[in-house]
Amino acid sequence: MYPQLSPKFGLGLGLVFLALSAVVQGDEPIYRIEPSAQRNFGYVIGDPVEYEVLISVPENHALEAEYLPKPGTLTEWLDLRTINWARTDSKGTAQYRLRLTYQVFKGVRQPEKLTIPALTIRFRGQTPFEVQTEPWQIVVAPIIPPDVSDESVELRGFSHPERRSLGPHRLRLAAYLGGILIALAILAWQHGRLPFFRTATPPFARTLRELKKLSRKRDDAEAFRKAVKLLHRALDETYGFRLFGEELETFLTIRPAFAELRDELNHFFALSQRVFFTAPDAPIPADSPLPWLETLCRRCVAAERRNL
Question: Global pTM?
Answer without folding.
Answer: 0.44
